[in-house]
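quick one, two chains, predict together pls
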Amino acid sequence: MAIDVAARAGAGGVRRPRRRAVRLSAGDRVAIAVMVVVPLLVVGGLIWFPTVASILLSFTNWDGIGGVTTAHWIGAENYRQIATIYPPFWPAVKHNLIWLGFLTFVATPFGLFLAYQLDKRIRGTRLYQSIFFLPVVLSFAIIGFIVQLVYSPTQGLVNNIIGDPARGGHVIDWLGDPSLNLWAVLVLVGWRHAGYIMVLYLAGLKALDPSLREAAAIDGAGEWHAFRTVVFPALRPINIVIVVVTVIEALRAFDIVYIVNRGRNGLELLSVLVTDNIIGEASRIGYGSAIAVILIVISIVPIVVFVWNSFQERQT
Amino acid sequence: MTSATVAAETRRAVRRRPLRVPRIALHGFLAVTALVWLAPVLWAVYTSFRPYADTAKHGYVSLPHAFGFANYRHAWTQGEIPKHFWNSMIVTIPAIVLILLFAASVAFVVSRFSFWFNVPLLIFFMAANLLPQQVIITPLYELYLRLPLPGWLSDTGLFYDSYLGLIAINVAFQTGFCTFVLSNYMKTIPKSLGEAARVDGAGVVRQFFGIILPLCKPAFAALATLEFTWIYNDFLWAVVLMSSGDKRPITSSLTNLSGLYFTDNNLISAAAVLVALPTLLVFAGLQRQFISGLTLGATKE
């Protein structure tokens, strides 16, 4: 298995004399420098420079018009205003948290459940895997369209199944009602997320010791116990990846609500508020940057966990 | 077969595999879930083939009285689908080539040599891919409005509203993931291969192009499939960094479609199916590559 190869290659490398002893010619040094520096400049210039700029701009009142030199340092004023007098902020925080909670406690466990069941030697497992995987290739923008097709008040699938709107009567406006639309959208977000998680867990389960899997793969009463005490702990490395993926997906959520209604009326998200400050009607660079910084602060946690985890594995 | 033999048969089967009922329940559960899973997509496809008049008269949940490609023809011309497809290709294909080249270069250096900067370098690239896009979008937008490009690369003379600008941000954003995957992959290639080449007098460049890259073909296939889907599916970059609607890649041009077709769900379905078609082809033909690309990043296979 590839994992074993990697482990052995790593172990072999430790015993060998340090590689720095190898002399590099001048030409080789130039080649290595180019291979590293060009990608470094692209990623540094377009990702890390704007990240730092977001942090700095969040403390200014820059409106984007004129040079950056016209910006004035106003300290934490943007943050104070966002928390106190910016109406969509707290709803957006709440929606992001609901989003994260839904993915963590509903969609992710369901993906794990599907993976675990499909990992048993079961007839048609390939077909089932393909079907559950299908939404993963679709873009969130397309899923935004599918949301409209499914939930449209008079033409949608859901309303036509639960009652015939053509005959009159009360029609549920799934996407127009701010207390319903987030949940309606989340059902289809979970639809995609569960398939994604299933694929990752299937790979994790395949990498487990087969005897471990077979011991737990017996249907019945002892199964849940075996899963909880044997299989799930053995999946620890992939569990960390899953947690990181889930948190980042929840923070990135944007396309689907933007397609449905531009992220208003019950569908506000932090990402929408950031974007609104550049392409929306209100152009306040400092505001947008301050919300972006809040996203940075939250996303640092999963990023550090992920990076730390992958290098931890590398050492062993 | 009499009922007695059926019962005996069942009893024997039960003895052979003690818990048969949970298996059947599991199959039932999976079959129902699979149907529910396909329902939204099948619904879109079904609606897309029915003329608006038919659904208006008989309702959406009804047997079709007419069937045809008329919605597709309308979506194709009104939504200017071919033009936006082409825009997507102009952005996606060069981006994939550059991403794989950059990622392979960095991965080669960190996996074949022991420099002090290997780990910080990998973190620098990996973490860049994990940030939410909105974290950088505001300064990036201002930066793109100020960064000049020669006129033959951009008719605005800026990174803003240019294909190159979109390619650049996709490359910058996605290189980290591929670097991470490829560096793990290259570590599994025996070091002795590079050493043998060095003894023969091959420099770094020849080791890279002649030995390591050809061995990474399976990883490239997986990553190219995955990146194609991701970049094709990307929505935000072009919505913010491109002002001309007719230059936008297809996924981002969906914002226009939703206004255009307003209440005609049949037309929206046809457009959605058309836009999803390339990714559905990936699903049908390159599923293995796509999944192995995803899992290469998550596990160390």
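Residues 1-20 of chain A have pLDDT under 50 and may be disordered.
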